[in-house]
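Hi, here's the filled form for the chain we discussed.

Project: internal
Contact: R.S.
Residues: 293
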Amino acid sequence: IAGAAYMYWFVFRHMLAAPRTGARFMAMPAELTGVILPLAALALLLVLLYAWLFPSDRAALRFSEAETAFLFPAPISRTGLIHISVLRAQLVLFVSVFLLSLLLRRGHAVGIGPLQYATALWLIIATLRLHFLGASFMRERLLDLGLPPLARRAVVVAIVAALAVACIAWARAHAPPPAMADGRALARYVADTLGGGPAAAVLAPLRWLLAPLFAVDTAAFLRALPVALALLVAHYAWVVRAQVSFEEASIALARKRAETLGAMREGRMRLRGAPKRARRAAFELSPQGPAAT
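And the returned structure, exactly as it came back:
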């Protein structure tokens, strides 16, 4: 109780208080919100595409070796194991984001307080993490169906290329490019291109997810919060309903993590990667010859 009172009185009380001047430090201009939000949604889309293109490892959940030995043989369904792993990860993630937001005193630059900023940031990171986990489950299911990683990547690239062609065709017909010297016209062009046509439909869920973070005030934050929460719940339901085999990969991951922690405790942890295999020399020196050679 004494420690909690000390932390509140000397740390959190000042962080949670509003600025005395009433002004927001480094406040974001209102005209830039319409450009930054679609650009941030586009960047988030590229992050999500990484989960479908590049990873080729098996689906695995983060458990320790003791947990795999105790929970996997126990009468717990796969759904229960997913609940345990996902909920524990979200709790740790929320605490980390909450403390980081308070310590850095974020939120005043975008019009919302630190607590609202922490909630918005947690929604984004938690949804991204669930999407990566759901994508790994989907990759595992495709492997079980006989679809190799190269074919999966080809399908994803074809879909992305088709969407890009559709967006470029729509922009040429409805949003002619402005002069590069006019910054405001260029910003409006980017906002119109990403906010209309096929791009608007593709980026809409990501804009909904990012909307609480870019809210200009508390009212806008509260209006955007339910949709972002719905996206998080939908991802959680997608992950929980996935019935794929992840036990063997989870056990291997737990063993690898235990070996890494053991090496760190014993001082055997190497910053570099695994040692490379010995390669044959490009040329061989004669056992006899000039000393200089």
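Let me know if anything looks off before we file it.
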